[in-house]
Amino acid sequence: MDIGKWAEIHRLKKIEGMSNSAIAKQMGSCHKTVAKALSMEDPKKSETESKSILDPFHEKIDEIIQKYPTLSGVRVYEKLIECGYQGKVGLVRTHLKKIRPVKKKRVYMEVNYDPAEAMQIDWGSCDKIQVGNSLRKLYVFVAVLCYSRMIYIEFTLSMRKEEFYRCIVNSLNFFQGIPSKIIIDNLKTAVVEGGGRNAKFHPEFLALCGHYLIEPIACAVRDPESKGRVEDGVKYVKNNALAGYDEKLVTFDDYRQHASFWRDEIANVRIHGTTRKKPIDLFAEEKTKLRALPERVFDSDIVIPIIATPMARVNFDCNKYSVPPTFARKSLTLRANDKLVKIFDGITEIAMHIRSFEKGKLFILPEHQELLFKLRKVSQIKQREAELDSLCPEAKSFRLELVKKQAKPSIHIQKILKLTNIYGNTEVAQAINKSFEFHVFDSAYIENLILQYRRKKDIPSPIPLSPIRKELIEEVTIDPPNLSEYDDLFGLH
């Protein structure tokens, strides 16, 4: 009991001689309070000895506050319920004021808004989270309807302007209507320079406002009164939606799902501290006065010009995405949102990937890989054909006949080129000329002709190389061998 009240009740009773009813009427207290005060000889002692249902949980509260210093009274209350507390939230709040006194702050003038008059938006910076093998910064976008305090939140991994515009579009879709004004802080994605009435807005932000016919209003510098709704909303998100959920919020998908749950099941159905009503109930009135959304959705995708690498990849947001190999080294256009990454050649879509928020990843579509193998195989075949044609004047005619007569001419061409590595270009060219004379077009016949020639000349056949790892020998570039030099050396001509 308040000591001042206790002292006045005792004075009126013992000095003025007033009755309990008269004292209660004069003090504005009930009869029970007067009777209790008169029964107390020492209010300090009685206050000290009074017991509370919250007393057994003081140690648990200290533990919670030590871990989460700014945790709201409601979240502390929810955690105590998990531990068996059966009291009311008011006792928790009163105790928190004692152990965590509120610092004196500047007093601001209350700004009132009519239904559907304005929406305030802002960003909040959160902790870093693990996305795959990467550590990324987490942000929260908060939009609040100023009249009903209906709130929309969305977690993102960046604050780039396209992300900002997309969140605004999503918030309007969530509210299913458009207010008259949109109030923003001096965000670089919206305000190019200045502030308040002198603010110069970003052209793309003005395009968004023009699409929805909504009036943009920039807050003056250091003017919390003009953006109090959303600033309180950001603090509310950090202290209520995030604090104390460490064990549940691990992945980015966890945060996305938690945003919807917290928004619909907690934030918008609570009794608001200022209005003393549920935002969802006030929103029922405000919703009828919001303007209808336009049929055409505002384009908030990220659109950037991009050049495909020689490996037929495009780099975006620290990852690589494949394109068809025929578009390697070409100038393309990339379009991305929070779900998809699309690549265009002009107006033609050539690739579509699921967007990843990890870093350093490579994403290749199976059809791109398959096409790459086909093109590579065709390129190798053409290269081998050109190499065979260069052996001698008759080689191209030989190859064309070989293609007509053999079911798998590429295999024969490959075998003939291998013979050049063993016996040299000169002997293979001689065998091709001989084979063309007899109208036999076969790699085995070419080899037989070479062996017959060597037997007649009594020339030993070289031993072909058989490396343990063929790829090592294929990577070595050497000049074509001239075996006639060895013939001259041993006088075999």
Q: Would you mind describing this structure in some detail?
A:
The chain is α+β, with helices and mostly antiparallel strands. It has 4 domains: 3-99, no CATH class; 118-287, 2-Layer Sandwich (Nucleotidyltransferase, domain 5), CATH 3.30.420.10; 302-364, no CATH class; 370-490, no CATH class. It has helices at 3-14, 20-27, 31-39, 43-49, 58-67, 73-82, 89-99, 161-175, 203-212, 228-242, 252-265, 279-287, 366-389, 395-405, 409-423, 425-437, 443-456, 470-474, 484-490; strands at 118-131, 134-145, 151-156, 181-184, 191-193, 200-201, 215-218, 302-307, 313-316, 319-322, 331-336, 340-345, 348-354, 362-363. β9 (313-316) and β10 (319-322) form a beta hairpin. The N and C termini lie far apart (127 Å).
Q: Any key phrases for this structure?
A:
single chain; 493 residues; alpha+beta; four-stranded antiparallel sheet; 19 helices
Which architecture of the largest domain per CATH?
A: 2-Layer Sandwich
Largest sheet: 5 strands, mixed
Radius of gyration: 41 Å
Number of strands: 14
In whole angstroms, how far apart are the ends?
A: 127 Å
Estimate percent helicity. Answer: 40-55%
| Coarse structural class | alpha+beta
Please indicate the count of domains.
Answer: 4
Oligomer: single chain
Task: Classify the fold: give the CATH topology of the largest domain.
Answer: Nucleotidyltransferase, domain 5
Mean pLDDT: 83
H/I helix tally: 19
CATH 4th-level superfamily of the largest domain: Ribonuclease H-like superfamily/Ribonuclease H
Q: How large is the share of residues in beta strands?
A: 15-25%
- Going across the major beta sheet, what is the strand order? 3-2-1-4-7
Q: Shape from CA axes? A: elongated
Unreliable runs? none
Provide the CATH top-level class of the largest domain.
Answer: Alpha Beta
